[in-house]
Each structure stands twice: as structure tokens, then as C-alpha cells.
Amino acid sequence: MNPIVLSIPIFFFLIGIEIIYDRIKHKNLYRLNDAVSNISCGIFEQITGVFAKVFTVAMYAFVYQHARLFTIPNTWYWLVILFFGVDLAYYWAHRKSHEINLLWVGHVVHHQSEEYNLSVALRQGALQKIFTSFFYLPLAILGFSVEYFLLLAAFNTLYQFWIHTEAIKKLGPLEWVMNTPSHHRVHHGRNPKYIDRNHAGVFIIWDKLFGTFQPEVEHPVYGITTPIQTWDAVTSHVRPFQNLARDWKLVHEWKYKLQLLFMKPGWLPQKYGGYRAPKEVFPETYVKFQTKLNQQMNWYLLIHFILILVGTTFFLFNLLYLALPLLIIFTILISFSIMSTGFLFEGKSPAKWIEVLRLLIVSIVLFTFFLKYSFSISLVISLTLILTLSLIWLFRFYTPSLTHERQTHFA
Question: At how many degrees (to 10) do helices 324-346 and 32-67 cross?
């Protein structure tokens, strides 16, 4: 079982503690729509990752089987070396994901949130692992086994969860060697001095060694230079490709089109305006994307998102027991569900009818699934009751929003 999947309960326990801290200290670290959007991106990455791993793991295994120079034993000291090797490979994969357009479209999803809390750690791009998996192939060539590579890569990812917080300030001597919340806050800043800095996973020494280190000075303004302005996780993944396609269409010469894919984000040929440098931003005046719903709809979305989380957890913990058609059906259903949730948070006019369609489809699929595998009258009654109450609640309280409200950074 994937250690990241096994850690899901711990993730939400720690997020709960941070929310309690936030309420006590009145830091305004969390907004419901933003947190749900972050976790929805994580859900989308995990459920589609089931299929992505067929490519990424198979590629590493193929290189290990056919091109390795040595067969490195799985002793503790070699595992320590592998852990450092994984982190170094992560540094370069991460750094190049910020410096190459084609890789940035897979990674940018992680940076779209304008908040900085533990839920942001779960906001991951579904295609990122596919785009960066070749950075780890030198480890396969050296002869590190597939099993231990996957295990230590998972631990590398798990370490990075806790550094997505403003609740922890600077940590003294630990800052010299390790990646910390302070170092990673810099990485998520859209301030020009913070952009493309502190790419480390576990050890900040790589940034200090390769010239990309930046200490935290002023409070960062979080997000990307062109805010995504959506709560929908699927749109969050699609729009970076649309933006790259727009630039691709803008330049006419093929040499520039190809060059565009491998240059840094914001690059254009000089004849088309040149590099679009990020503009200075200030915490006191910066405004975040925000939409507002009535309290009843916020409760509706929170309850249904918890149900989506339960369904996703069931899906991830039962992957080995589900046939391929069921894997595909559940992936589509969960993706449609988080997309509908995002539309409702945005107050879009068609969102109510999209949600009605989702409720009906999910109910039919669940009825069919449980009828075949574990039928019980109490389950049927429960599903019917949830569907009925949801439809009543939706038609009673959902009101489309015509405009999006804005909110200052510290509001």
C-alpha cells in the first residue's frame, strides 16, 4: 500500500489542528472554497495517478531491468544514500518544472492557491509525475531497486506536507540544512524576489549549493503571477495548457513555437514583446479571488465534500480489488463530483443543474454497485434519503452569483 494513501487520515487530523489554531489566533489562514479546491486537486491527482503510475513506475522498472550498471543491495547505508539521491533528483525535477514551460503546466497547479496552509500541500498536479519521472532514471541506472525507490520517494513527498504552514515560524539551526516552513513559504511567494527560489524537497542544501536559495524576508504574497480565478480542480489543470496554447498560437515561426515549450514561463520572442517579467506585489494591497455563497450552501458543499472524501478514500484503499471498468467509472464520477463542487462555489448559473445531474448519476451508479456487491435495504433507504434531501436543499438555497467579490490579502 502507498504510504501517501495510508497517511490520508493523518493529513486531515493535522489540517483539523491547524484550523483550530487558526480560529483561536484569528489568522484567517483558511477559506472553505480555497481549502476544498486545494484538496480537490489532490483528489484528482491521486485518482488519475492510478493510471499515471502505469507509465512512471514501468519506465523506472524497465531502465532498472535493462540498463542498470550495478545491483545495489538494500542495506541501511545504501538506503540513506538513496534517500539523498531521491531528494537531489527531486530538486532538479522541481527546479526545471519552474524553468521550462512544458514542465510548468504540470506543476503550476500546486502554486495556484492564494493561501498557505496544510491543505495546499495536498494541491498537486495530476501530470507532474509523468513530466518529471525521467529525472529519477539515473537512480535506476545506478541500480537502486524499484521497491525502495518508490518507498523513499513517497517519504520524500510526505516530509513536504508539514512545511506548508504559517503556524510555524523560523526553526533556528534547522534552517541551515533542512527545508522548513519558512524556506517553503518563500517558494510559494509570487513576489519577484521569491519566484523560482527554494526548490528543495527535504534538504535546503541543494538550493544553497546550486544558487537558488532565498531566505524569508518580507511576508510572501502567495499564488501565481496570473491568478487562476477558479475553484474547479479540473479547470485548474486545463487552464495552464490553454495559456500555453494561446502563446503557441501567438508566435508564428516554428523555431519560436518549439523554443516556447522549453523556455521559462513568461517568455516570448523579442518581436512579440519579449519576456513578461512578474510585477511587484504588496501584501497590504493585494486582493485575492473570492466568491461568496449563503451559509446554507456552504454547509451543503462541506457535507457533500466530506462524502466525496469518503468515496475517494474507499476508492484508493480498494484499488487492488476493483476491476478496470470500475476504476474508470469511479475516476470519472469523482472527477465530475469535484468539478461540480467547484462550479457551485463559483456561483455559476448552470451549476445547479450540473449538480442535479451529478446527484442522479452518482445515485444510480451506487445503487447498481451495491445491488451487485452488498445489497441491504438500509443502504437503499440511506441513499434515497440523501438524494432527496440534497435536491430539496439545492433548489431551496442555491442562488447564482453574478459577480465575483474580491478580498484583501489580510481580510
Answer: 150
Grid cell at residue 164: 506548508
Q: What is the pLDDT of residues 78-112, one digit of tens each?
A: 999 999 999 999 999 999 999 999 999 999 999 99
Q: Are 127 and 55 in contact (CB under 8 A)?
A: no
Show the beta-strand stretches assigned E in 107-249.
Answer: none
Assigned C-alpha cell, 46: 491521486
Q: Which three cell numbers stand for residue 341?
A: 463542487
Q: How far apart (Å, rounded) are the C-alpha atoms in residues 134 and 153? A: 14
Helices (H), 263-376: 295-317, 324-346, 351-373
d(CA 164, CA 115): 10
Give the contacts of 229 (CB within 8 A, at least 6 positions apart).
Answer: 289, 404
pLDDT, mean of residues 326-332: 93
Average pLDDT value for the chain? 93
Supply the pTM of this predicted model. Answer: 0.93
Distance CA 264, CA 312 (A): 35
Q: Is 172 helix (H, G, I), strand (E, B) or coil?
A: coil
Three cell numbers, residue 87: 531528494
- From residue 365, give the alpha-carbon distance in Å to each of 40, 280, 310, 371, 383: 21, 50, 16, 10, 11
| Nearest C-alpha neighbor of 91 from the set 193, 211, 174 | 211
What distances in angstroms separate CA 367 from CA 285, 325, 372, one per listed residue? 51, 16, 9
Cβ–Cβ under 8 Å, residues 127 and 106: yes
Within 10 A of 175 (CB to CB), how many other CB atoms are there? 16
Distances (CA, A) of 180 to 216, 219, 270: 11, 15, 38
